[in-house]
Amino acid sequence: MRIGELARATGTTARALRHYEEAGLISSERAPNGYRVYDERAVVRVRNIRCLLAAGLTLDDVRVFLPCLDGDVAAAPPSDKGLRVALERLAVLDERIAAQTEARDRLEAALREKIGDRIRPVA
């Protein structure tokens, strides 16, 4: 299948697929006309990559899961290395959330100091 077909089948973009390929997570062959051609297994692999990215992992993190990207990643028992990577990413996300919460609190305090109770939460 060509890159556009794979993009449609996986709900992603051709640009993202080229990025995954550049990162070594998927591969393609070249047709005589130079177009990228992917086999059917790429659909499962890309869906797994997207699942891991949606869970907060980075492309570098996803490389740890290369051996199981062609199967059911969500149902597979986690490896020690995979657990370590996920726990490290969770710690990074927790740090970022804490830093953003502190920044938000400082901004809210500064605004309250200037305009008082006219601050309303933005939904």
Care to describe what's here?
This protein is mainly alpha-helical. Helix content is 58%, strand content 3%. The chain is built from five helices and two strands. It has helices at residues 3-10, 14-22, 41-54, 59-62, 80-115, and strands at 29-30, 36-37. It has a two-stranded antiparallel ribbon. The longest helix has 36 residues, at 80-115. The radius of gyration is 21 Å and the shape is elongated. The protein starts with a helix and ends in an 8-residue tail after the last helix.
State the helix count: 5
Number of strands: 2
Instruction: List the strand order in the largest sheet.
Output: 1-2
Find the structural class using helix and strand composition: mainly alpha
H/E series: HHEEHHH
Look at the structure and give the mean pLDDT: 92
**Oligomeric state of the chains?**
single chain
Query: Regions with pLDDT < 50 over 5+ consecutive residues?
Result: none
Question: In percent terms, what proportion of residues is strand?
Answer: under 5%
Tell me the major beta sheet: 2 strands, antiparallel
Give the N-to-C terminal Cα separation.
43 Å
Index terms:
2 strands, mainly alpha, 5 helices, 123 residues, single chain, two-stranded antiparallel ribbon
Short structural summary:
With 123 residues, this protein is mainly α.
Sequence-ordered SSE layout with sheet pairings:
Layout: H1 3-10, H2 14-22, E1 29-30, E2 36-37, H3 41-54, H4 59-62, H5 80-115
Antiparallel strand pairs: 1-2
